[in-house]
Amino acid sequence: MSTRTHAATRRPATRRRSPATRRAVRRRRLRLGVGVAVVALVALLVSRPSLHDAVQEIALPLRHEDIIRQQAADKDLDPALIAAVIYAESRFRDGQRSAAGAEGLMQITPRTAHEIARKSGGTAFTTGDLATPQVNISYGAWYLRYLMGRYAANRTFALAAYNAGEGNVDRWIDRARQRNAELTIAAIPFAETRNYVRRVLDAREQYRASYADELGY
Hints:
The protein is mainly alpha-helical. The protein has two domains: 19-58; 61-210, Lysozyme (Orthogonal Bundle), CATH 1.10.530.10. The protein has nine helices and no strands. Helix 3 runs parallel beside helix 6 (133-150) and helix 7 packs across helix 8.
């Protein structure tokens, strides 16, 4: 019997991959896994609208829409604008308090709230009432309406004043007019206020598009 080994039965020597090759393989597998997960998530969102709504609710929350609709109608305001201000101020989280002492959903300072109470006839108001959504949204909407009237329905000026105060906005407008400069969002001297106005206006459009039924459009 022959002791020779047939070539077809020999096992080829195993070639070890270099570390760089193994890392490249792992990266390709990771990218493939992420791609599969994204496709699966998209398919799930398309097939289950309720889950899509839940994801939207996390990204763009909405609460107290009944109060928002009522206050918008009472104060002649766009309900999406009120919702957008609440989103920018507190992301609809109750009980928020800023370092400056602003409180509640629309982040109203006690000083401003007492002034609103005086002007609107809220004789029974106490600072603790700002924790109540009905009172907080009502006072925030009142202040928005006041600012819209003060600045001739200019949303940019009104929102800038809501964030930075009327005095700062008045000085900004005066300086811009003295230089014959454009009164645009980009010209607002405070970066925080510029970003705030843009954030609110962008959120307003999103609320109008995403919550038309809830906000009464």
